[in-house]
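Support reply, case 0932

Customer input (verbatim):
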Amino acid sequence: MAKRPATLGDMRKAYGKHIRVRLGAATAVAALLPLTPTPPPAAAAPTPTWHTCVRDAQDTPGQELDRAGARCAEVKVPLDHTRPAGPTITVAVARIPATDTAHRIGALVVNEGGPADPVIDYLLDRRAALGELAARYDLVGVDPRFAGRNTPLDCHWPTSTYFRGAGEGRAGFARMAAFQRDLAAKCRSHAGGLLPYASTRNAARDLDLVRTALGEPRISYLGISYGTYLGEVYTAMFPGRTDRIVLDGVHEPGHLAPWAEYATERVNEDALRHWAGWAARRDAAYGLGATADAVLATVERVRTTAVRRPFTVGTYRIDEHTLPLLVYGVLGDDLAPSDDGIAVMVGTLKEAARSGHAEPDPGLAEMLPGLFTGQYSAYGSTQTAYLCADTPGPRDPEVYRRAVERSRAAHPLFGPVVNDVTPCPFWPAPRERPTAVDNDVPALMVNATGDPRVPYAEARAMHAKWPSSRLITVEHSYRHAVYGTAYGSTCVNGAVNAYLADGRLPRADVTCPAARGDDDPSTGPVRQVP
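Our regenerated output:
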């Protein structure tokens, strides 16, 4: 199975990804005031037929799932939940049954984020994080409608993501507005019949039909990044149907307006400076600068060169629109904190800026095709369809241009990326407004203080809205999504798994140190905050 490029894999986590924004102009906010959802007519309870997870001889994830005892199925759901007797689609489901049936807790449903990230093919990664606890749960992966193993929503884009930097001045912004308008037009031409039905609210409705199909009166839920928003919407739309809830990289729905990444320049710059300090202490290996300021100056020289004199990496042209995105896309990933991929990438870009050309390192070789070709068009198309349904934003491109200009002087690298125009101003109007998430249920929330994808302030805000929740804070960490084996925090994993095991939240909020390898040698014990 082809793996998603790293850039897209990280930018999916921007939904809040993708939905981590600050309230902007009053007119934009007023247009997005949420409505309390009205339950649609009940659909007939589906009955899944379980079968092998292997689709073909090249389906390595399916083979691994089969070896782990998983079975897969397709659950039929209405395309339009307001017309339960109308046309239907299917959502793919995988289930690894509990092996300790005497102590079985129930079904634990996972969502990896995105929106539109596949879940099924990465289900075993989450099983590893559970450790011995995995034996007590049916671990369930549900690929959201149009994503993963489902029939795709594909706009036939010449790129796999709409993310770009606005470039310099009105001319650069005008190019990006034309680019985004063209992407939206392609979606209307190639997938117009599906666009109205790709949304988090519909994904939540599908999830409840999967719950019914599994025969579960309630489900436990693990949501990562955008998956936290899906979990929040599900609990609001279907109160009383959840058991234990873990939200990792927590979105606060009040930050849905006016658009996806608005005003996240500062947290991304903080993460970049943290990495720059790491690289400076290894200047002998990477040659990017002996201090954090020197490393950041290297990055800035590469940026300004891309503006004045675009260069090539392999066969790809790196310019004012794409260079900032490369740096943005690798921050906050869920690889080992000491991974040197960013340093290697910046070294390649430094050489290309100096000489006009460089051959791609392995990381760029994986990322660049996703940026410059339609290899993963369906992924980017589906992600954008969810985004524009959930966070349509202002319709006037000038609102975005003014936001870019306000940000550019102080934040020349990230300001033109997180404030740039998207396809959403040119998208068909969404059928439904965002869900009012006002259902206070017990939940365990997890966030790093330096998370560049979901600012820590959002986790604190969501925690305050749910008085019965607890918050695990990972101090001095600049990672996005910290539960699991990739990050390696025994403090976080222990607290999450203890809650999933007995259903009892910590008596107070929990503070964890950064994991080893995050340039913080502390691995001190868990600390509970009164």
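We compared this against your earlier run and they match. Two observations from our side: The two ends are 47 Å apart (CA to CA). The first helix runs from residue 6 to 11. Please reopen the case if you see a mismatch on your end.
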